[in-house]
User: What shape does this take?
Amino acid sequence: VVESRGGIMDSIQRFSNLPTYLPASPHISNADIFFFLKEANQDIMRNSSLQSRVDSFFIYKAKQPPVLNATYGPFSVEQPIPLDLMLTSASFGFTNKFTFNWKLKSHIINSSIYSNKPKIQTLFYIAGKDWDEYDSEEMLPCVKMFAFLESREVVASCRLTGHLGLCVVELELSPSWFSSPPPLVSEETASLEGITVELFYKIYAVDGECSPEDAKWENNIHAGEDNEHQALSAMERIGSIVVYPNQDKLKQSSLRVDENIIIHLPLSPVREGDIVTFHVFLADYSLADQFVLRIRTAPGVKIVDIRVSDADQWGVQEETDSARTTATVTCVHNDPGAEDRANTTSYEILQMDFEIDNASSPAGAQQITWQVEYPRDDSVSELVVSEIFVSRTMFVGIVPLATDTEILNTAILTGRMVSVPVKVVAVQEDGSVVDVSDSTECRSADEDVVKV
Assistant: This one.
């Protein structure tokens, strides 16, 4: 048998100049990048004869339905490639666009939700969509997001729009989601570890506006399908968030004025009209029992309140100018026995509220200067500057968007560099989206693989 097979291969090689398959010439049109495939070490075409020919091909990029052409001598024939053989999504089948390789991607803006910030925001966008070919009359589908916790459900929706094909779903949890944890979760566990809430989505074809958030404050018991809308996809999981019943603590940074005084200030940007609280702490092992704190603010920032944290320990006298932009605060410990306080840890002495003026405060960093005097030693610290970052818009997250979800390196086959356009958008508190690509920096985790 082995000798017989060898004889057959010898015969094929001896008469290899004769065609063993139909010598037709296939070609694919309306495709930007495509390849005809052949198995490695393949000597003859599989399942082919002089009456027929079988070719395998791979279409990588196409902006319109590809067409397969075949020529044989003076004869030619062409046929559109059936869409069921393409990577088109049924979710976008109702549009008049060729949705080859379109995929709906989601990005949860903040995965930790607190009782004082009960809003869940998720950005959806279409990957694979050509950003340069945008039709203002293009009607994209609606996305409906579901949040599930035990038997509780809340729903919100948005419509994909624009040349990026994106939208932000905003879903607000009612107070009961924070005040009553599931039966098997204790209040202590919920406070420390949080409660996991699962997020899912569906795509709907809707004429006109997407449905309002009528379930915003309701606890539906898995209400079932929405009959007035045509679901274009099965329910798919987005991911999970963690709900905490307590309030979100503001992120703070520390500024050391000298060896005795530390200022705790907010790290996040603030908006015009906000009240910002600074905390004045006595440092670890400090023996200071009397000092004068001098504060000066930039134009547009006013000192609105100064509060002593523990009136039993510290006596405080304050003097402010009429514009409330400078203040002198004298602090004296009520029990000057420094020996009793030498081993205590850092603790708060004062709280100071600053208001960002709507009228005159420009966006950007607003400075506040601090200086400490010690009358007993007749000494003065260096001048220290803190900054409040003021923004007219409050961003809650940034999301990188790519036209494709993966990169296929075809450069070795085509000689052309493969590139994927990337944009960066910022999501604001109100759900609006701003393109910040020109103001951001992107870096590759491995320059040998991907360059940005």
